[in-house]
Design goal:
This protein is an all-alpha fold. The chain is built from 13 helices and no strands. Helix 8 runs parallel beside helix 10.
């Protein structure tokens, strides 16, 4: 009797924790790190990384990476179903249905709603009804979750596509400013870029924390990435507000703030390190020489520049320091394709950081 009771209790705990994990991952509209989801994604990441190392070309490696997020998401659902199956196997065994093999068959019969194994008594029938309902519930979660997640993915990719049209491939803040200066004038940036990306950053903050698989979904075009596009837009706004001699655009400043708040929230979810209170003059990953080369490129394209070079550099680094660490960390996290001032900052050690870790207080 004691063994039976322990088996039933253990099975109920496994099922309860699995359902709680599924609800926290899919239903709760807040970025809650879930240990089970984290483990599944880590295992899939190691498998994908091993397969990627066998790829003989960069396109082949990129093709492998494209499978990481979808396969991890499906593996998470399979894991939920397997754990529910195992939990109810213990419950049926504890209820005296027979051997552990017979209990497994009864559990599979109930979960698939096929009913090929008869159960007897109110307790066993109640367990069968509960397992059938939970199995359908988990599948329904996936069916309802995917459309909302892909809707967020499509909204993001529209923004990313515009970013690559406006800022080049790979995108850079310099190219963004040069193109608008030549085609429409820098004043057109306000409504064509800054306002759109401010709204987009708000959307990314919500969707990429409440749907933890979404940051890893890669763009349909291999050389595009949401994080490199975001970095180019933020760099463009930072250059405009610091280096370019043009009328002040408050929308650019708001875009930078929306951007670094968004990237920091996503970085918080994955426990990526950054300084939450940086100050003007702190070190950034962009060197003074790189900034001066970008300034020269802007000047060669006819973009008006501020005369005080030293003050312009301090202003630029003062803007960039707000999002620098989060940008580079997220680029490494998602294995972003090469792009200046973002994914090219990744060191080999940071190229495969842990993912889906428990968030820590800052």
């Amino acid at each position: 009797m004691l063994v039976d009771g322990l088996a039933i209790a253990a099975g109920v705990v496994v099922v309860a924790l699995t359902v709680l994990s599924a609800v926290s991952t899919v239903v709760v509209p807040r970025g809650i790190p879930v240990r089970l989801t984290r483990v599944v994604f880590l295992v899939m990441r190691r498998l994908i990384s091993a397969r990627r190392r066998l790829a003989r070309s960069s396109p082949a490696a990129e093709h492998v990476l494209a499978f990481y997020a979808p396969m991890s998401l499906l593996a998470t659902v399979v894991t939920w179903l397997v754990l529910v199956l195992g939990g109810f196997t213990l419950v049926f065994w504890g209820l005296g249905i027979g051997s552990i093999e017979h209990a497994y068959e009864a559990s599979g019969s109930a979960m698939t709603t096929l009913g090929f194994v008869p159960v007897h008594g109110a307790a066993q029938q109640s367990a069968a009804f509960a397992e059938a309902g939970l199995g359908l519930f988990l599948l329904a979660l996936l069916i309802t979750y995917l459309p909302s997640m892909y809707a967020a993915f499509q909204r993001r990719e529209v923004l990313v596509g515009l970013g690559f049209i406006q800022a080049g491939a790979p995108p850079t803040g310099v190219e963004l400013l040069v193109r608008f200066h030549r085609i429409r004038g820098l004043e057109a940036l306000e409504d064509q870029v800054w306002d759109r990306w401010t709204q987009g950053f708000v959307d990314i903050e919500e969707s990429h924390t409440s749907s933890p698989a979404l940051p890893f979904f890669r763009s349909p075009v291999p050389e595009r990435s949401w994080i490199t596009a975001a970095g180019a837009v933020l760099d463009g706004a930072s250059l405009l507000s610091s280096t370019v001699d043009a009328p002040h655009q408050p929308a650019a400043d708001l875009c930078i703030r929306a951007g670094y708040v968004s990237l920091r929230r996503v970085a918080d979810y994955f426990s990526l390190p950054y300084d939450p209170a940086p100050v003007r003059g702190d070190a950034i990953s962009v060197t003074r020489a790189e900034w001066e080369a970008a300034r020269d490129e802007l000047g060669a394209a006819g973009v008006p520049l501020r005369a005080d070079v030293e003050e312009a550099w301090l202003d630029f680094s003062g803007w960039r320091v707000n999002y620098d660490a989060a940008l580079v960390g997220l680029a490494a996290l998602v294995n972003a394709p090469p792009a200046p001032w973002s994914s090219d900052r990744m060191s080999p050690r940071r190229h495969h950081p842990p993912v889906l870790r428990r968030a820590t207080k800052r």
